[in-house]
Hints:
CATH superfamily of the largest domain: Vaccinia Virus protein VP39
Low-confidence stretches: none
Strand content: 15-25%
CATH topology of the largest domain: Rossmann fold
Structural class: alpha/beta
Mean pLDDT: 94
Number of helices: 12
Number of strands: 9
Helix content: 40-55%
Order of helices and strands: HHHHEEHEHEHEHEHHHEHEE
CATH class of the largest domain: Alpha Beta
Distance between the termini: 68 Å
Amino acid sequence: MDNETKSIAEVFKESCIKLSRKYHPRELKQILAMVFDYLLDYPDVNSSLPFDSSLQNILEYAIKRLKVGEPVQYITGIADFYGRKFIVNPDVLIPRPETEELVYLAAQGIKDLPRTEMVNVLDIGTGSGCMAITLKDLFPHIEVTALDISEKALQVARVNVEKFDVEMHLEKMDLYRLLDAMPGRVWNFIISNPPYISRNERPAMGDSVKLYEPKLALMARDDDPVAVYWYLLQYAQTALLDGGHGFFELNEFVSKEILQEALTFGFSKAIIHKDMQGKDRILEVAK
């Protein structure tokens, strides 16, 4: 029986067998379901409808890439985040569930403000734009500015801005130069998922992260995972309005040190939120 007479369900099952040595069964089904849905436009992998044989080469190429550990999000060009599908490529990090928790906290803060009030949000190191765009999509009345040092990342963010039909400002900026480059600009909320991984942590990273995701967005500059937060906190203390909040994704291994740094800046509030796995994940500060 060739692929012209095989059902979608049969081809899906065969694909699972081809990758069974690489992935855990549950993970494998989730990954291949994304390939079938986003790449082949087959959202129902249990369908008895015939599999279009003209898609076989696309499927085989995807399987080849999965066998060497390439993230499925880069293969399909789509990553799920906060109930939305964002365009991604190897120039940007793949959005993760932990970052959704940061967006949720920021959204709760925005929701508590009167809609008649002007709300300015700054996203530092926006990557694909997933955090900034999600907040703008949730709260169309807010003003959002998103920064990144990578022009290639900003190109991806622009595609997503157009995809979600939102209006926001995208600027190329080095977070280490914020105080000099953005004098006088003030914000109600500052959010960031900065590069915070040290070389010591790199061996523990999965190959799919080490080999495929952008080092510029992952690795701490000068191998100092604390310094990046010092710059963020210094800028937040200067640029947050009274009553404003900052939410920064944390390196869990230096979270206590970062919290101590935050306390020296004199914020009215500085606390750590744990993620769903119970790890220190988000630093919240308030002015």
